[in-house]
Design a protein that fits this description.
400 residues; alpha+beta; Cytochrome p450; 7-stranded mixed sheet; 18 helices; 14% strand; globular; binds 3-methoxybenzoic acid
Length: 400
């Protein structure tokens, strides 16, 4: 550890190395304990990993902007891999119209009608894994299947090409990290995937009743421009699949590894919503995002100059013992509200209600049909520069 001129501790820890991606928790503890702000020498960027500073960075959009990209790349100096998102990679005032249009379309009230069909779909899916035997893969047989069934339908996509959705999201979340490594390895496979995604965002390729059509209807009303509509649809297709797959896998993992908490859920379904929040607090499907300082910014007593990248460790904040007693425990007695798994402030996940609804549908179907759920093997991680997910999670269930 060395001290720079601003008294910020510096470390050569690389959060995007395969070792750290495979098991980030020790690195998170190191970063939290080094200080409120640290300098990551490998990338010459700053980082915050404690809850207080992550929360502060997330909620100060004037001091820490998103418009220069929320990955390692600084859009004011490097060309982004695709036209920037109008939501994720924009600041007020440009961010405001796309955000308010999408927030209305994705509000709990507007989405309510989807619940009965999603519950029925989840029942069929859980029945099917039960019929196939006592063991199944919670990732490939459940957590991937459910969102890929219900979400593209809700958006209004056609049937063909849906296999492009997971690879596109996987790449987009990798692209927030360094260009070498995972991104460089995947890049050659991307042009056809990117082409398919772009086609699906056009009005004529979306059903007339889905979420995609509602975004285009907002352009008809003049709430957004016709040029903005396809990019907002693209945001749904980018951020709406891999994330919910990971969130559903996280809550299955939590109950499979905490049989006592599963039994509590069976006895009291009033704890269901909390179980999901607690699972995403612990796993934090989206681990990190960057911001870029607009001017000189003070965080945790340190001064960071203008135009600098700051990496926010959402996952580390969600396990910061300074904020969460017994932080590593999945505990249904805890109030997990205030977690930053969906971010905080202006950019807080606009799709979080859909994510909750999907997870609730799966959990309720499991509670209806399943008496016990436990791991039947060691889960295998899927490495991604931003997402903390799994490739495989063997589980054993017993029908209720
Ligand atoms: C977007 C978007 C929003 C949130 C996360 C994300 C790839 C993308 O608007 O495209 O990750």
């Amino acid at each position: 550890m060395t001290l720079t001129a601003t008294a910020v501790p510096s470390t050569d820890l690389d959060p995007f190395s395969p070792e750290v991606l495979a098991d980030p928790l020790p690195a998170h503890e190191t970063l939290r304990d080094l200080g409120p702000v640290v300098h990551l020498a490998a990338y010459d960027v700053y980082a915050v990993a404690r809850y207080a500073e992550v929360h502060r960075a997330l909620t100060d959009w004037q001091g820490l902007r998103s418009g220069a990209g929320v990955g390692l790349a600084d859009f004011s100096r490097e060309t982004p891999w695709r036209p920037p998102s109008l939501l994720l990679e924009a600041d007020p005032p440009r961010h405001d119209a796309p955000r308010s249009v999408l927030a209305k379309i994705l509000s709990p009230r507007k989405l309510r009608g989807l619940t009965p069909q999603w519950r029925a779909d989840a029942d069929v899916l859980v029945d099917r894994v039960l019929a196939a035997g006592a063991e199944f893969d919670a990732v490939t047989d459940l957590a991937e299947v459910f969102p890929l069934r219900v979400f593209p339908d809700a958006v209004g996509l056609g049937e063909s090409g849906r296999e492009n959705l997971l690879p596109y999201g996987d790449f987009a979340f990798n692209a927030f990290g360094p260009r070498e490594g995972i991104v460089a390895a995947l890049e050659p496979t991307m042009p056809s995937v990117i082409g398919w995604i772009g086609e699906q965002c056009r009005r004529e390729n979306l059903s007339e009743t889905g979420i995609g059509a509602q975004i285009w209807a907002a352009a008809d009303r003049g709430d957004i421009t016709p040029e903005q509509a396809p990019l907002i649809v693209r945001s749904l297709l980018t951020a709406g699949v891999d994330t919910t797959v990971t969130g559903i896998a996280a809550v299955v993992h939590a109950v499979a590894t905490h049989p006592d908490q599963w039994q509590r859920l069976r006895a009291d379904r009033g704890l269901l919503a909390r179980a999901f929040e607690e699972a995403v607090r612990l796993e934090s499907p989206v681990q990190t995002f960057f911001r870029t300082t607009t001017s000189e910014v003070e965080i945790g007593g340190a001064v960071i100059g203008p135009g600098r990248k700051v990496l926010m460790f959402l996952g580390a904040a969600n396990r910061d013992p300074r904020r969460w007693p017994d932080a590593d425990r999945f505990d249904l007695d805890r109030d997990p509200s205030g977690h930053v798994a969906f971010g905080m402030g202006l950019h807080q996940c606009v799709g979080q209600h859909i994510a909750r609804m999907e997870a609730m549908a799966v959990l309720e179907a499991l509670l209806d049909h399943v008496q016990s759920v436990e791991l039947a093997g060691v889960p295998r991680r899927h490495l991604n520069n931003t997402l903390r997910g799994w490739e495989s999670m063997p589980v054993r269930i017993q029908a209720a």
